[in-house]
Amino acid sequence: MLLKKSSKTLLTSLALTLMSASVFVSAANLTPEQQGMEISQEVKKRDVGWGDSKADMMMFLRNEHGQESVREIKIKSLEQKSDGDKSLTIFNKPKDVKGTAFLSYSHHTGADDQWLYMPALKRVKRISSRNKSGPFMGSEFSFEDFSSFEVEKYTYKYLGDEVVNGQDSFKVEQFPLDENSGYTRRIVWVDKEEYLVQKIDYYDRKNSLLKTLTYVNYQEYLGKYWRAQSMQMENHQSGKSTELTWNNYTFNNGLKAADFSRNALKRVR
After folding, report:
1. In the CATH hierarchy, which top-level class contains the domain 45-265?
2. Where are the domains of the chain?
3. CA angle, 239 as apex, 175 and 206 as ends, to 5°?
4. 103-130 tens-digit pLDDT
């Protein structure tokens, strides 16, 4: 027997209500630590399957007096199914940094592998785990900040909900497991609709607020993957800031692991 349209609508509404109630009860039964973990897992889950990407990036370095310098960069990334992602960052301008290249292998657990090629010295320098909290190319980002987010590298605590960047968001505290991390903790705001990171507060080894990273103007690619067009890092202790702006994203470029080898660092143009 066919149901009338109004009856179908009523049943659909009832089903959605019951599902929402079930999710609410499930979340209510979780500890703040479990809730924080689940939110962070969902962030990662929604950004898998993109394969590889290329993008152009502008880096704006601003000192405490507002004076600005600009760098032009190209970035390539390769998704890894069984480990963290690989990325290659290539500096094209200005002339004094042209040809400098940074290679990063993120890992689910343990220290990431990172190398920096400096054309003036014609050699590849490995970034040690103890030095990854240092500034990346004079910016307010650290080498650590240029690793992909991996759920296994943190413990978590859900702190509640707040509106950030006009988005109703989850507020989650993340504690790095790596003893060489430059941070004691991060507080991350994730919007409830798309699970996109809106803002991150970074606390230094003395547990003082060090930096705030704000994500601006998300755009959707391939009907599924979201990327912020601007990332703004403010250092509260020095008064300096760095803004990264992204353009010309392309995906599924056919990049291979060989494009992210240490030997590839010396061949970049």
Report:
1. mainly beta
2. 45-265
3. 35
4. 999 999 888 999 999 888 888 999 998 8
